[in-house]
Amino acid sequence: MNVYCTKCSHVRDPLYVIKIKTQNGCAVLNRTVQPFIFWGFARVPNKRATFQKLLCDITVLNSDKGDETMNRLEGKLALITGASRGIGRSIALRLAQEGAYVAVHYGKRRNEAEAVVHQIRQSGGNACVIGAVLGTPDGIHDLFTALDDVIREQTDGSGFDILVNNAGIGQVITLEETTEESFDEVMKINVKAPLFVTQQALPRLKDGGRIINISSFVTRAASPSVFCYSMSKGAIDTFTQLLAKQLGPRNITVNAIQPGIINTEMNAGTLQDPQGQKYAAGLSAFNRWGEPEDIADIAAFLASRDSRWVTGQLLDASGGSHL
Fold first, then answer.
1. What's the domain count of the chain?
2. I need a surface site. Which of 14, 239, 264, 290 has the fewest CB within 10 A?
3. Strand order in the sheet with 126-131
């Protein structure tokens, strides 16, 4: 990687360069640098290179991946519920890639959660596992007892930065088929758990932090076959907007992502069937179903400073389904 000023045309490596905007003049460091910039300095092997003016904008350019910011979540601590598989797993990997220390929560699938942590560490990131069964006061207490230990170990004890309420269950049951037990089950995990997880998180969440809730496009496109599941996600949408209003004075943003049909275990029954595949792809304007990475990239934006002026929003991430 090489450094060049955006006010000149010096591009030493067309495949992968760091673009630095200075207040005036041209500053070029004609050697490889580490991907870490702080307080107007570029850290280079064995020395510092100082520019005449403080750096005010840093962007990584990559001809294969397109423009992307560098280490946007460096120094941040994120808790992701239900991160052992599916969308939660992909969000954990993506936030770790951005530099965050990720607490990978699991309910029952410890081996899968440990595999996520292993993959993060193999890629140069940092993460740990936290096991807790959500939906009960004891489970939520266990979650935050473990998180408090992580906060003490990984930070100055001031708290954590990013909460992703991802844990949830699917339920393909019509109104006529709904029982009191099935209703209580979906509401316990999809509504009660994120409510009380967030309640316990707020005293620990730093001002300027981020809350990301995983909702669903079924709150926009009526799907009677998933009746109570849709109701539970509608509650999450309202919860998101209430929280955004309440936490605005603390500069905490709260947003929800509404995925469409995503290639996860929850939708395996649909996507393993040729007719189901045709149906799922046909819903989207892009004629395909979604992948967990499609949602993780949105979560990375919402977790970063780039989203500082976005709150209380319900981001449809269904690939233009039901347009």
1. 2
2. 14
3. 126-131, 101-106, 77-80, 160-165, 205-214, 253-259, 314-317
67 within a domain of the structure (yes/no): no
**Same domain, residue pair 229 and 92:** yes
Q: Can you tell me the distance from the alpha carbon of 236 to that of 291, in angstroms, rounded to the nearest whole number? A: 22
C-alpha closest to that of 169 among 153, 196, 192? 192
Range of the domain at 123: 77-317
pLDDT tens series, the chain, 323 aa: 333 333 333 333 333 333 343 334 444 333 333 333 333 333 333 333 333 333 334 333 333 443 444 589 999 999 999 999 999 999 999 999 999 999 999 999 999 999 999 999 999 999 999 999 998 999 999 999 999 999 999 998 889 999 999 999 999 999 999 999 999 999 999 999 999 999 999 999 999 999 999 999 999 989 999 999 999 999 999 999 999 999 999 999 999 999 988 988 887 778 888 888 888 898 899 999 899 999 999 999 999 999 999 999 999 999 999 88
Just list the catalytic residues. Answer: 229
Secondary structure class of 4 (helix, strand, coil): strand
Whether residue 122 is found in the same domain as residue 239:
yes
